Amino acid sequence: MTATNNALFPTLARYNQWANRLLYAACGALTEAEFVVQRPAFFGSILGTLNHVLVGDRVWLARIEGSTHDITALDQILYDTRLALTGAREAEDLRIIAIADAQTPAKLAETLKYTNFAGDVLKTPVDLVFTHLFNHQTHHRGQVHGLLSATNVPPPPLDLIFYLREIGHS
Fold first, then answer.
1. 114 three-state secondary structure
2. Is residue 111 a part of any domain in this protein?
3. Which of 146, 107, 150, 147 shows the shortest CA–CA distance to 130?
4. Which residues lie closer than 8 Å to 75 by C-beta, 6 or more apart?
5. If we measure between CA atoms, which residue out of 111, 49, 113, 36 comes closest to residue 81?
6. 83 occurs within a structural domain
7. Which of these, 56, 65, 72, 87, is most buried using a 10 Å CB contact count?
8. What is the pLDDT of residues 84-118, one digit of tens each?
9. Domain containing 42: what range?
10. What is the DSSP secondary structure assignment for residue 155, as one 8-state letter?
């Protein structure tokens, strides 16, 4: 795959921040008990699912930056309250924007070599790593959206096109 244009990943990083803000605001209307209650979800709760997204972001960004992380499991609970998780999410979204903004076509065309949790050494083009990062967030935000549908809190519309319209790209 050839590297994508320089505007795509910075745009997706900002969309990601926008969608997370909307989703976390909706989750803010839940009680803490509703936020942490076990539900029929792969990561067990809204709290667990949102923690998983943050876990994934931290792992992939560390790989992209060539740094280390302290993640030990994909279902690790990094923050056990909504307030703490929200603050961490906001900071991570700023980090994602900064890293996406710093990418060049040459960097996006490189291949990232990393070790997964099973100990396998793998290689993936950097542009596809970014594509996965944003796709992963969208997938799990959709799960939380579905979980919110089973509460009294209406889930917000999170489609990319709504963000693009809001920023004047339609």
1. strand
2. yes
3. 107
4. 43, 44, 48, 51, 52, 55
5. 36
6. yes
7. 56
8. 999 999 999 999 999 999 999 999 999 999 999 99
9. 8-166
10. P
| C-alpha pair distances (Å), 31 with each of 21, 28, 126, 147 | 17, 8, 39, 14
94: domain CATH number is 1.20.120.450
pTM, two decimal places: 0.94
**Residues near 68 by Cβ (< 8 Å), separated by ≥ 6?**
62
Please tell me the total count of domains within the chain: 1
Which pLDDT value is given to residue 6? 75
Burial 30-61 (b: 16+ CB within 10 A, else e): beeebbbeebebebbbbbbbbbbbbbbbbbbb
CB 4 within 8 A of CB 127: yes
- Which helix (H) or strand (E) element contains residue 89? helix 82-101
